[in-house]
């Protein structure tokens, strides 16, 4: 949730960027699909993908929420929304955070090599070979049938590439959504050949405060952000310890999962203080008329023992990196989790799954 303006390095470079971005895209060859997919149409410059009554995502300059005709917010982030009854609601952003030699870099604030502004540029491709910088490339995503035992199940797959980071890390993502699991998107993390060696490459859901996530469900306890951060009232992030995989809950198939939920009723969550300071920050008011459980999980086998869940918190809503306390307002109901992510020692092809579901934590675990 970071926005800033850094002087452009070159008007020519920025003009070139716009020409590339809004130029004619390339048509992708795809298998015909029967599931109710959300994909760019022929000749469209739209960059939004997903499934009806399920998870939807987009990359800059596209917003993901129905009616968002702007730039879709900050660059260097994947917008993640949920489609329900014909409308898509923005729920969270996912940032890419490679770590090289123990130092972390943030995709939403790392400056672009194109124009020097905050936020790495992302672009999409239908295959790993579509990795040359071309944000106008029209990726519809490839439809496949991943499970021979379930021939009716479809999977939408595409790749998201990013500019090389300042620390020379050069990760890219393979993203997939299955028609039988419309509430989640799968991420596989890889690196280009010119990438620096990464210690870790976190994918972090950065906007938990919007949903006012306060309960982190683990195997032996539920962590409440209001208690965890009860002594904190500042304007910065507050960090506590991460939680190892031994504390994760397990799905019925044995997959480790970390679940975050709201503590409030729907009426409390959708309410908003009637105050001038909060009117300015009304973009933080929760817009869906239903609650969503958020989770990260991985497969039951193949993960590294270093796997852990990390959260941090905020007592006040983010305010564009301002250091002026007057620019901040308290989160109604108390501190909430902001960043929510899995961390694991990097290896090519590691898999994480991020989910948004109308199921409760108990319903999710019982399926």
Report the strand count: 22
Count of structural domains: 2
Mean pLDDT: 90
Strand content: 25-35%
Radius of gyration: 20 Å
Ranges where pLDDT stays below 50 over 5 or more residues in a row are 1-31
Largest sheet: 11 strands, antiparallel
Helix share bin: under 10%
List the total number of helices. Answer: 6
Task: Write up what this structure looks like.
With 367 residues, the protein is mainly beta. The chain folds into two domains: 1-206, no CATH class; 208-367, no CATH class. The protein is built from six helices and 22 strands. It has helices spanning 11-21, 208-211, 225-228, 266-270, 276-280, 361-366, and strands at residues 37-38, 48-51, 55-59, 77-84, 87-100, 103-104, 122-125, 142-144, 155-162, 171-178, 181-191, 200-205, 213-217, 222-224, 238-239, 243-244, 249-250, 256-262, 293-297, 308-314, 336-343, 350-357. The strands form two sheets. Strands 1, 2, 3, 4, 5, 6, 12, 15, 16, 20 and 21 form an eleven-stranded antiparallel beta sheet that branches. Strand 2 and strand 3 (55-59) form a beta hairpin. The model is unreliable at 1-31 (pLDDT under 50).
